Amino acid sequence: MAQKPSIPKGTRDFSPIEVAKRHYIIDTIKEQFQLFGFHPIETPSFENSDTLMGKYGEEGDRLIFKILNSGDYLKKVDDALYDSKDSTKMTSKISEKALRYDLTVPFARYVVQHQNEIDFPFKRYQIQPVWRADRPQKGRFREFFQCDADVVGSKSLWQEVDFIQLYDSVFSKLKLDGVTIKMNNRKILSGIAEVIGASDKLIDFTVALDKLDKIGEEGVKKEMLSKGISEDAITKVQPLFNFEGNTTEKINKLKDLLNSSEEGMQGVKELEFIVKAIQTIPLQCATLDLDVTLARGLNYYTGAIFEVAAPENVKMGSIGGGGRYDDLTGIFGLKNVSGVGVSFGLDRIYLVLEELDLFPETVAPVTKALFINFGEAEALYSLKAINKLRKEGILAELYPDATKMKKQMNYANKKGAKYVILAGDSELKNETFTVKNMESGTQNEMNFDELKALL
Amino acid sequence: MAQKPSIPKGTRDFSPIEVAKRHYIIDTIKEQFQLFGFHPIETPSFENSDTLMGKYGEEGDRLIFKILNSGDYLKKVDDALYDSKDSTKMTSKISEKALRYDLTVPFARYVVQHQNEIDFPFKRYQIQPVWRADRPQKGRFREFFQCDADVVGSKSLWQEVDFIQLYDSVFSKLKLDGVTIKMNNRKILSGIAEVIGASDKLIDFTVALDKLDKIGEEGVKKEMLSKGISEDAITKVQPLFNFEGNTTEKINKLKDLLNSSEEGMQGVKELEFIVKAIQTIPLQCATLDLDVTLARGLNYYTGAIFEVAAPENVKMGSIGGGGRYDDLTGIFGLKNVSGVGVSFGLDRIYLVLEELDLFPETVAPVTKALFINFGEAEALYSLKAINKLRKEGILAELYPDATKMKKQMNYANKKGAKYVILAGDSELKNETFTVKNMESGTQNEMNFDELKALL
């Protein structure tokens, strides 16, 4: 006997119930994307390597899955290079395509390639898998879906407001109360670094500050010192270490701290605009909070930065994130296209809904009526009824084989069928059906119209 | 300026309207799959190479996209092999994973791997992309979706009946009248070869017969002769060259032709069972026809063979196909699992619907109300209304920037917005909205409740 087959590490098979739950989340997100005026695009699973390489840093380049050229791919490699047996150099000769690593770079490529067909501002969403040759671990996969929505072609802050509303709408629809939408602004981080005279150390500073949760105030200060940030500077940012209060209070603190930095004050102004709008149009189930330690995608974001935290009672990393970027398409030669976007973390949202038992009972369609198979004539009689029921949108099925009753009932049970329908000799004669309610166990004989009405 | 980016040949970007149309088809198929009691599974985009290699013949092996191993993949290649510079031998050393080539082999792998979690008969559907390194040409892509439904674990012919009904239901929902579901049976082909004493030439015989459409009776006869099939044998199958009539007449002809072949008569019996059932439960929009020249997947199918032809007025190859196979999972060591399945050709169905103009006008969600942006206070006032409208499921949007009216109206036009809503100074004062019907051009001032009712 052949070895039991398996799948590559870091990948997953999804069973029917898992597919149903995943699509419940995806469909909910999609519905809200559409309601907010976003349009779907889809891009190929693999791109030309030069579209992807160099866009995610050195580490990213290593984690991109490369596709081997077809045919006699070694023939084109010149001997000198071949003799070096250098994997990195060989790759670019024997592989011209690579699996997409995220949806952002393909989106940028799409915008540039199709710029003449697009009406800006362009609101697009995209829900597709991406692949990363990451070391697999709990909750980290080599194939996973990203769900992104972006607007490009406008700098309006109303879009940030809209994205916060969008997050709130999606999580409301998923009945996931208590998420926190954490917001920061790249300009505030720059401003802080500026006022403490450490603009050249912005990255070191924010990387350290980002660890406040994990290593505490003393740990952060120690790291900052070790990176050459002065005691004096650290004293100036003391308010950040106990950055408490509601959003209005936090904004006032930031105004005090940053009043000497033009860029910092611009960041505060942007935050304030968004906060005030959200105060006027309150969220349904989420809370907007300011978090000055938030530094995700710092190389990338130029304005607002978002991160969504799961409800406090669930231990889980962020379930969404995003921000404003000023030059998405520059890498492909189209300058000055500002954009802002958010992403939903499908796998983590799945785990949260699972943990909080928030998937609706009806997430997967269930057989309403399973017809027992008693033989050829009876099956044909049943199939006629099934055909009519399906036209009414009722999920009805015939057990395919005229096997033992017990086996068929067992199957009905496992499929979770609500009703089992028996149509044997006498029912055929009477033009009726005997209907067994699988929950109560009661049985009733009825004609087709009564059956249809019941189901 | 960077070079304008592009995508690999044989792949496609899908614009919003294309995505909407594709998902209209996919969702219709999915809905019917579910109504017929099929459950979805999803498998990883790439499989271990040994799961795929050797399953599709030599040509298939060549067309499978292989993924390069990560890291210093050349290090593991021993010098002797490396020095041979043999691409084929190298591939198995530097690539362990490959993109799936179809959904059938991954499904077989899934069934074997998860056999203990599955209740048989297992009715699964799967709608995912597959990849083939085929030479791209009109209508043939390197990445495309397959939409498959299969039942494994039962030999019941009721399933063949159900699949014909399923085809009919899907095409009815798509309003695609006039498709023909062509059916044959592997046993009939074997039987014909048997009665003419050419059982050893079954493949040659069917390959020639399959060309009847293209090269005509004389061409087929010539090819058969050239393959060593005798004049005498060809005379015996003369009825196949003018195989006209309704399904009942055709079955009678086959009974005459095949009465000396046990296997052939078994095939006729199976066809007859299916035909009679479909006569009792008539199809809505499709026609079932027998086509003894149909020989698709002959290496594979063991019973019924299906192929769906587009309506006669459309020039298009088959838009679906399938059949019965007796040993799907044998390749992975699980014997005696009979299955039957069908597939829908998404790309071709798309082209047919496009040609016949059958996509509904509402295939893509359209902005119902675009609110003009007159500045901060007005935008906030509008956004409050938008927020309430969205809660009612109404697609409403704010133009993000307070730019020239003309630009905003232009955008509304391009987005196909039904109504443009103007809320300036006086509307804010009156707590009203001026609503412009973009079709009729009429304008009306109304309060929020009236607006909501209108939309």
Automatic annotation (TrEMBL), chains A, B:
It is found in: Cytoplasm. Keywords: Aminoacyl-tRNA synthetase, ATP-binding, Cytoplasm, Ligase, Nucleotide-binding, Protein biosynthesis. The keyword Ribosomal protein does not apply. It catalyses: tRNA(His) + L-histidine + ATP = L-histidyl-tRNA(His) + AMP + diphosphate + H(+). L-histidine binds at residues 102-104, 132, 146, 150, 296, 300-301. Its main location: cytoplasm. One of its GO terms (cellular component) is cytoplasm. GO terms for molecular function: ATP binding; histidine-tRNA ligase activity. Residues 1-365 form the Aminoacyl-transfer RNA synthetases class-II family profile domain. GO terms for biological process: histidyl-tRNA aminoacylation. Its EC number is 6.1.1.21. InterPro entries: aa-tRNA-synth_II, aa-tRNA-synth_II/BPL/LPL, Anticodon-bd, Anticodon-bd_dom_sf, His-tRNA-ligase, HisRS-like_core, HisRS/HisZ, HisRS_anticodon. It is an enzyme of class 6 (ligase). It holds the Pfam family HGTP_anticodon. Belongs to the class-II aminoacyl-tRNA synthetase family. Homodimer. This is Histidine--tRNA ligase. It comes from Aquimarina aggregata.
